[in-house]
Amino acid sequence: MAAGNAEAGDSARDTYVEKRSSKGRKDLSYPEPPEPLAVPVYDNHCHLDIVDGDDPLTLAEQLDRAATVGIAGVVQASGDIESSRWAADAADRDPRVLAAVAIHPNDAPAYAERGELDDAIAEIASLAGRERVRAIGETGLDFFRTGEEGRPAQYRSFEAHIALAKEHGIAMQIHDRDAHREVLDTLVREGAPERTVFHCFSGDEAMALEAAEQGYWLSFAGNITFKNAQNLRDAIAVTPRERILVETDAPFLTPVPYRGRPNAPYLVPLTMRFIAAELGCDLDELCDQVARNTREVYGDFA
After folding, report:
1. Least CB-packed of 130, 142, 157, 220 within 10 Å?
2. pLDDT confidence of residue 10
3. Is residue 143 within 8 Å of residue 186, measured between CB atoms?
């Protein structure tokens, strides 16, 4: 695994998102491409700056491979200053990419300890003004990997990111782990951006109903196919179709039957077909709805 690629420059980083890559994997080869979708959709959240696998792909190669199976574009998400710059530059270079910029909640305490959090948020604010940066993300709260001592910095960062999304009139992608109630309460207290997305939704049926009632979008990743993810299948069953998005969180959360191998936008069709079967709906109609949802949240790609 390496951060960045030849098109954007390598950057040695030790952030939360970087440290997740390749952890515990046995097979680092990319799976075979699935059957293409007849109606194109978008990967609503990925990390293509993390070059992973035995045969790493450049940004252009990732996007070209995705296009062959009906993935029309991606939203490149971020977690630190370097990845946010990378995302914004990638979106400027390729019309198939839109960018989301942010400080990840698990990195906010580290920035705060160095006395750099305010400066980092200021840099995110500057990047958010670029035309193809269409979201603040991923931001939020994570009580799984950050203990009590880091939570004040997470809250401070999350609240600042909420304000940035509203100031710039763009969407917000939320990272929420083991902090469902606290995230929802913070959104109510601070006032959620008009277009708020729960990236890699991890709640249950009750949370899905509450989020949808508030007008939030729920983005489902490949882990909805995992045997132990009944909560996600229960959640999507009650989510209004106009609130559903799909993502990879690549290179993580590769859908069954390739769980544990590197993920990439070209594998979105596996998740889309699984969701359509789970909901008992027509695949083409679902793809059309999810694509329209994506454009409603982020705007047009080209």
Report:
1. 130
2. 37
3. no
Sequence ranges of the domains in the chain: 39-298
* Whether the Cβ atoms of residue 275 and residue 220 lie closer than 8 Å to each other: yes
107 is written with which tokens?
């990195």
Please name which of 194, 193, 81 lies closest in space to residue 127, comparing C-alpha atoms.
81
Q: Residue 146 and residue 102: Cα distance in Å, rounded?
A: 17
d(CA 270, CA 27): 19
Condensed to tens digits (0 to 9), the pLDDT of residues 17-72 reads 666 655 555 788 999 999 999 999 999 999 999 977 677 899 999 999 999 999 99
Angle at which helices 151-168 and 180-190 pack, to 10 degrees? 50
pTM comes to 0.92
Quickly list DSSP for 152-183. Answer: HHHHHHHHHHHHHHHHHT-EEEEEEES-HHHH
Name the helix (H) or strand (E) containing 287.
Answer: helix 283-298
* Sign of the CA dihedral running 187, 223, 271, 221: positive
DSSP 12-69: ----HHHHHTTTT-S--SPPPP-PPPSS-EEEEEE-TTEE-SSS---HHHHHHHHHHT
Rounded to the nearest 5 degrees, what angle is found at the Cα of 168, between the Cα atoms of 167 and 172? 95
- Between CA 267 and CA 212 the distance in angstroms is 26
Nearest-angstrom CA–CA distance, 198 and 119? 26
**Which residues 6+ apart lie within 8 Å of 177 measured at CB?**
141, 142, 143, 144, 145, 202
User: How is domain 39-298 classified at the architecture level of CATH?
Assistant: Alpha-Beta Barrel (3.20)
Question: How many CA atoms does the CB half-sphere of 6 hold within 13 Å?
Answer: 5
Letter for the amino acid at 230?
A: Q
